[in-house]
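Hello Y.,

Per our agreement to keep a running log of every chain we model this quarter, I'm adding this entry. I've kept the format consistent with earlier entries: sequence first, then predicted structure.
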Amino acid sequence: MAKYALLRQEVIKAGLAEDDEIREPHSATLAELLRVHTASYVERVLVGRLGASELRRLGLPWSPELVQRSRSSVGGTIEASWAAIECGVAVNLAGGTHHAFPDFGAGYCVFNDVAVAIQSLRAEGRIRRALVIDCDVHQGDGTAAIFQHDPGVFTLSIHGADNFPMRKQKSNLDVALPDGADDRVYLHHLRQALESVDASASGEFDVGFYLAGADCFHGDRLGRMAMTMEGLQERDRCVLDWFRRRGIPVTIVMAGGYARRIEDTVAIQLGTVRLAFELARRIEET
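Predicted structure for the entry above:
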C-alpha cells in the first residue's frame, strides 16, 4: 500500500532517520511462518492456489508481489522484536496484520506478523511471556484466536464494538467501544484497560507488541470513530509510557489506517514513530 512508502519518506524528511538507517527486513522463512500457520495454508499462499472464497475473505487479489510484501512485513516485525529486546523499543514501518488466522487470511492480512514474531522469539529462547496491546479500530481477532489458550501471551484489544470483524474472538481483555467514540471516551477506556492489565496479568512480560492503528481517526473511511490527531498522539504516549514505566521492551507496528486523505494516515503514523524515537532517547538517558 502507498502509505508505507510515504511513511518511510516522511520519516527521512523529518530527520528521524537516514535512508540507509532504515533496515530492509528479511523475507520470513518457511520455518518461521509454520510456527503459526498451517503448512497447507502457507503452501496455497506461496504458489497462488487460494480459492475464490479465500480471496474474498482476504480482500486482496493474489500476486507474487503480495506474497513478497507479506513475508517482508512478517520479517520486519521479527527483526523489530529482536531490536526491541536489545534496545528497549523498535518500530516496523508496516505490520500489524492481526486478522490472519493459522489457516486463512482475512481483512487484508495474509500472515499474522505479531504472532509469528512471538513464536519465533520463544523458539529461540529469547522470551517466555509476551503482551499484545492492539489499538487498531478493528478487533485483533486472529491474534486473539491464536493465543486464546496460551497462558504465556496476554492479548488486549480496544476496538469498535460494531465494526469488522462481525464475529469477534476472545482476547484476554476486550474493550469494545461504540461508533463515534471521541478522544475523551477512548482515552478513559484505554487507561482503565491498562490498569486492568496490571491487575489481572500475573507475572512480568519479557516483550510487548503495540499495534498503533491510525484508523480510530475521525477522517478514516473504515474506522467509524471520532478521534483527533491530538487524541491519537495522546493514545500512543499513554501506551508507550506504560511500557517504559514497567521496563518492558516494546515492538511497534503500524496496523490499519484508511483516511480519506492518505496524508492524514501518514501524519498519524509519523507521530507514532516520532514518539518511539523520543522513548528511545529516554531509555538511553536512564
